[in-house]
Write a structure and sequence with these properties.
alpha/beta; five-stranded parallel beta sheet; globular
């Protein structure tokens, strides 16, 4: 069945017009991704149905240095896997009758899209992941994160004013020249943290 969220935004109506995300690369930066999850697995850009190639399809930064990345996608918290499903999750192969709405789990807005995945840990790693998404032709990038900083310090300059923060903003501006960048900005509970 189609998830209630997709019907709320009329995604299924758009699918019937032929717009499923097919041929589009969607990038994501989050806590990481469990790429073998059944709902989004076939949408992972590195999976050809038999073998996986993670080079340029996955960028690791969460919990690891840029110099020593983990070469296989992983998700320490599960949140990234959730967002990947929201982007393109659908457990019915696109060559099957009734795709995409006949899937057991039709949860992704763009079930025909190819996913390029990244995790985040620092501005340097987010910049590198954004540049990698650009290099493989991503025209959408999803970012779903909060930032650990007290409200008293929550200013643009305090967060993005460092050379590393400015480089990250610059990479987003470069990506935005030909892409759509989506940020979800309410991912930390309580009032002692600031969300961006």
């Amino acid at each position: 069945p189609i998830s209630w969220g997709l019907t709320k935004i009329n995604a299924d109506d758009v699918w019937t017009l032929g717009y499923t995300g097919s041929g589009v690369v969607v990038g994501g930066q989050d806590t990481g991704y469990e790429w073998e999850h059944p709902a989004p697995k076939d949408k992972y850009r590195g999976w050809n149905g038999i073998t996986a190639t993670h080079n340029y399809n996955w960028y690791d930064a969460a919990g690891h240095s840029v110099a020593t990345p983990q070469l296989t996608p992983f998700d320490d918290y599960g949140h990234g896997t959730h967002t990947m499903g929201t982007m393109a999750g659908n457990d019915l192969a696109s060559n099957q009758p009734g795709w995409p709405s006949a899937a057991t789990n039709a949860i992704g807005v763009a079930p025909g899209a190819d996913l390029q995945l990244g995790s985040f840990n620092s501005f340097e790693s987010m910049t590198a992941a954004t540049k990698q998404a650009m290099s493989v032709g991503a025209i959408v990038q999803n970012n779903s994160w909060g930032y650990d900083i007290t409200f008293s310090q929550r200013t643009y300059e305090r967060v993005f004013g460092s050379p590393e923060g400015k480089a990250y903003i610059s990479s987003l501006r470069d990506l935005a020249k030909g892409s759509v960048i989506v940020f979800s900005a309410s991912n930390i509970e309580g009032n002692t943290k600031a969300d961006l």
